[in-house]
Amino acid sequence: MSAETIAFIGGGNMASAIIGGLLRAGMKPAQFLIVEPYAPQREKLIGEFGVAALAAGDAGLAAAGTIVWAVKPQLFSAAAEPIKAWLGGALHLSVMAGIRSESIVAATGSERVVRSMPNTPALIGKGIAGLFARTAVSGEERATVERLLAPTGQTLWVEREDDLDAVTALSGSGPAYFFFFVEAMMAAAVDMGLTAEQGKRLALATCAGAAALGLGSDESPTTLRERVTSKGGTTHAAITSMQADGVDAAIQRAVLAAQKRAAELGREFG
Ligand SMILES: NC(=O)C1=CN([C@@H]2O[C@H](COP(=O)(O)OP(=O)(O)OC[C@H]3O[C@@H](n4cnc5c(N)ncnc54)[C@H](OP(=O)(O)O)[C@@H]3O)[C@@H](O)[C@H]2O)C=CC1
Ligand SMILES: O=C(O)[C@@H]1CCC=N1
């Protein structure tokens, strides 16, 4: 192991998305060390990526230049405690929701901490990750983090750490809101006599097309929505129904609930 080694504490969904992306971008399996207590998951990582995976961290961690924290926030303290002696020399990158950088400094003994909030489209290189760096992190280390996350999609730096709670609520959790919407579209498709499969195809292609249209256009989502909405037509009927049901306000409340929960996770498990 060397300073080029990237160690992951937790080898689940998010770790796999980042490791897979970096391997596709040309990093070598020997550059990774994963600490993952769940044996079937360890075997999956070894089989899929050819990386080294240990049930528990050991002194070898001290050589890693970068340590990525990818355990559930609830498990952070318990995961850090037994390996603390070997963490002080590394740059730490957390993907954990809520856990404050101050808690990561206290648990690792390193001031060089970057927090990120990726999302699951990272699995196909189409994610977006919010990033926050503590002042001890150098410009070069910020660039290192950007390189690490580049294969997973876009990155966006925020200046205030608390803003990561809003990023978590928007883009971290956002893919689930989108699938929730698609599930409802599919249920409506079935109500109207289409099959669920037809509903899924129509809903996903429509959402993907609308997102691509929005990304490629200088016009606001409001203008793009209005362009679909003919006077007295079908879209007007649907939007009027959603407004009467308070769907927009409900979505805003839901996103704020996620932001509040992110802050709570930091207080409860930091
Ligand atoms: N999923 C998402 O959309 C996003 C998740 N995140 C954040 O990423 C983090 C990881 O989430 P995700 O990848 O979905 O979760 P997973 O449950 O898939 O991965 C976490 C892994 O860590 C393992 N683990 C548990 N205890 C330890 C330990 N002591 N040492 C090392 N590994 C341990 C778990 O094993 P076991 O299963 O045995 O407990 C599990 O395999 C979370 O903090 C979450 O907030 C961030 C952005 C988006
Ligand atoms: O639900 C969660 O807590 C994590 C953080 C963002 C997405 N999943």
TrEMBL record:
Keyword flag Oxidoreductase: yes
Query: Which reaction equation describes what this protein catalyses?
Result: L-proline + NAD(+) = (S)-1-pyrroline-5-carboxylate + NADH + 2 H(+); L-proline + NADP(+) = (S)-1-pyrroline-5-carboxylate + NADPH + 2 H(+)
Every copy of the Pyrroline-5-carboxylate reductase dimerisation domain together lies at 161-265
State where the protein is found.
Answer: Cytoplasm
Q: In which pathway does it act?
A: Amino-acid biosynthesis; L-proline biosynthesis; L-proline from L-glutamate 5-semialdehyde: step 1/1
User: Which EC number(s) are documented for this chain?
Assistant: 1.5.1.2
Keywords in alphabetical order: Amino-acid biosynthesis, Cytoplasm, NADP, Oxidoreductase, Proline biosynthesis
Q: Where is the Pyrroline-5-carboxylate reductase catalytic N-terminal domain?
A: 5-98
**Can you provide one Gene Ontology molecular function annotated for this UniProt record?**
pyrroline-5-carboxylate reductase activity
The principal location of this protein is cytoplasm
Top-rank lineage group of the source organism: Bacteria
UniProt KW Cell wall biogenesis/degradation keyword:
no
The protein's matches in Pfam families, at most eight in alphabetical order, are given as: F420_oxidored, P5CR_dimer
For this chain, the family text in UniProt reads: Belongs to the pyrroline-5-carboxylate reductase family.
Purpose: Catalyzes the reduction of 1-pyrroline-5-carboxylate (PCA) to L-proline.
**Which protein is depicted?**
Pyrroline-5-carboxylate reductase
Native species:
Roseateles saccharophilus
Q: What gene is this protein translated from?
A: proC
